[in-house]
Amino acid sequence: MTVSYAMLLAADPARWADSAAAWRRLSRELDDHHDDLARQLARQQQAWHGGVAASAAREAGMALARRLATAPPALLEADQLLWRHADRIRLLQRRLALALDAVRGTAVQVSPDGQVSVLLPDPPGGGPSRTSGGQRAVPLGPAGIDGQGGYGSRLAASRGGAQGGVPFGPAPGASEVALAVRVSAEIDAVLREAQASDEEVSRRLLALAKAAAQAWSGTAVTLPKAGTPADVARWWAGLTASERAWLVANEPKELGRLDGLPAAVRDRANRELLDRELDRLREAAAAHPPEPGARQRLTALTGLAERLDHGPVRAYLLRLDPSGDGRVVVAFGDPDTSDNVATYVPGVGTSLDRFAGEVDRAAAVQARAAATAPGETTATVMWLGYDPPDGIDAASQRAALDARADLGAFQSGLVAAHEGDRAHLSLIGHSYGSLAVGVAERDGGVIADEIVALGSPGMGVASAAELGRPGHVWASTADNDIVLFASSKGELALDALGGPAYVFAGAATDAVLRGNADLWHGVDPSSEQFGARVFTATPGTDPLDAHGVYFAERNPALQSLAEIVTGETGP
Q1: Which end of the chain is least crowded, N or C, by CB within 10 Å?
Q2: Residue 259 near residue 229 (C-beta atoms within 8 A)
Q3: Is the separation of the CB atoms in 422 and 415 below 8 Å?
Q4: Nearest of 179, 181, 178, 191 to residue 152 by alpha carbon
Q5: What is the reported pTM?
Q6: In this structure, are residues 123 and 171 in contact, taking their beta carbons and an 8 Å threshold?
Q7: Element (H, E) at 47
């Protein structure tokens, strides 16, 4: 099927998104059937064992269980493919809308079938009128300008000659020609991309259907024991479809943590882990007595599962580790295909039991970035791939230092897995998360085009010049953010001389007057002496509220973040 201009304009991406949601629901239902079958097989083995019939029944049940275990990830792949196509069509429709906006009010016109031409007034007293309004449409094609024809050219013919040209009257101006050629080229490019997406999705869905006929069977393969994200990407590219299917179904825990794999693969693996952990937590919470912390963790992960399934953009679960305080990484939008990718690193007190607000912040940046640059795609990631401090241990840099390798590997993985040209990468650190970003960048451990510190207690450096790209280091701290009231290490040393009241008074004065740039973990990134590019944040209702106000809908800081992430701020 050939995708036409009229077809693309009339397409409804919501239909593909709705179909994707249906495949995702079916995936969950099959997973539930698998869990029920596993419980039935366990009871059967207890009640009926010994003899040929019992063994045959057990083997048949186990074979069915294996088939059911392999199916849900394959159905999730159908969901991902349809969402991806829907996102592409939305973007291409936005690009068409921008092209049509560019010609509005000009002499350039676009016909209902996508042909581009220039309207000129009829020559005074010469020749018949070509239109009832005293104008004629002059189709100006690339062949008449540079001698080259183009794929499916929207410009119908060259100027002059026998092929529909206009041999009389004033020639169109250079600006009209340039605009017409530019719009024609954009329409051609958009249609080519729509056609390519349609063909790719069709091919991969057919491959899934073929795999379904073979019960999604896979071939066992060994995971790599070590290597960089680039090594992981090359290893994955060399696997067969059968080997990949086996890994997703049988090694989701190991596969889901590998930086350098495609986001869609990690999402399928980690959603499988999430389903397993929810099953375990339900049993743990229902036990007598319940497992300590099980109910709180169950509530948090149930909320995560719901958030992954609902939203204006598709979410990707890129990491899930339920051990200890836990790790979770969630992306809004596909980081492998997006033009811009922002990684948000949260701060103190964030854990697998308390992360919902941080997910909301990443989603807010993505939504505003998409509105700021509608002709591009932007993905944002909430990266809780480290163990932030819970309280007083925020005075130590240990957690930030421990995060360096994992944050660096994640950013390298974004580069290794990205399709086409590298995305514009941003790192946003809030509160203690800005320290984690700062020490990683200071030590050369991350790939990032933009570094952003919000409500920072210091980034572990004395100035932006110590970071990789000082002209691309950004900072914002609300005037009444509580982080400004904290004593610096130097002020704390004076405690022995002047007492706590003296230190508190000095720190409070610094916060109000912004005279002393020393904070606990270094120089205030929002101070003049640090040298970052500072943007404004609205004060909060109180110092605690101010510390989290940067992502609020009406805060100018959110718009600044969107412009930084999308590269709309200039050099």
Answers
A1: C
A2: yes
A3: yes
A4: 191
A5: 0.84
A6: no
A7: helix 13-47
Token couple for 156: 């119908």
Q: Please, what is the Cα angle at 32 between 27 and 38, to 5 degrees? A: 125
Q: Are residues 83 and 174 in contact, defined by beta-carbon separation less than 8 angstroms?
A: no
Counting every residue, how long is the chain? 571
* Cβ-based burial of 283 (10 A; exposed 0-12, middle 13-18, buried ≥19): exposed
Region of 97 on the Ramachandran plot (φ > 0 left; ψ -120 to 50 alpha; else beta):
alpha
Q: Report yes or no: 456 and 429 within 8 Å, Cβ to Cβ.
A: yes
564 membership: H or E segment, kind and range: helix 556-565
Distance, in Å, from the CA atom of 5 to the CA atom of 112, rounded to the nearest integer, reads 8
Residues 6+ apart with CB under 8 A from 222: none
Dump pLDDT digits (tens) for 193-221.
999 999 999 999 998 888 776 666 667 88
Six-digit token pair at 281?
């937590």
Q: How far is CA 225 from CA 222, 263, 458, 538, in A?
A: 9, 20, 36, 48
pLDDT tens per residue, range 355-396: 999 999 999 999 999 999 998 999 999 999 999 998 788 889
Query: How far are the Cα atoms of 205, 248, 257, 266 from residue 74, in angstroms, in the given order?
Result: 10, 9, 19, 13
Crossing angle of the two packed helices 174-213 and 52-103, in degrees rounded to 10: 170
Strand ordering across the sheet containing 116-121: 108-110, 116-121, 135-138
Q: For residue 26, what are its two tokens?
A: 């079916």
What are the angstrom distances between the C-alpha of 547 and each of 43, 159, 394, 542? 53, 63, 15, 9
Tokens of 306: 């719901």
CA-wise closest residue to 114 among 166, 165, 160, 150: 150
Q: Hey, what long-range contacts does 567-570 have (CB within 8 A, 24 or more apart)?
A: 567/340, 567/373, 567/424, 567/449, 568/372, 568/373, 569/533
Q: What is residue 258's DSSP assignment? A: -
* Residues 455 and 485 sit within 8 Å (Cβ to Cβ): no
**Residue 223 three-state SS:** coil
CA atoms within 13 A on the CB side of 421: 3
Residues forming a β-bridge with 329: 319, 383
* Residue 248: pLDDT band with limits 50, 70, 90: confident
pLDDT tens by residue, 254-266: 999 999 999 999 9
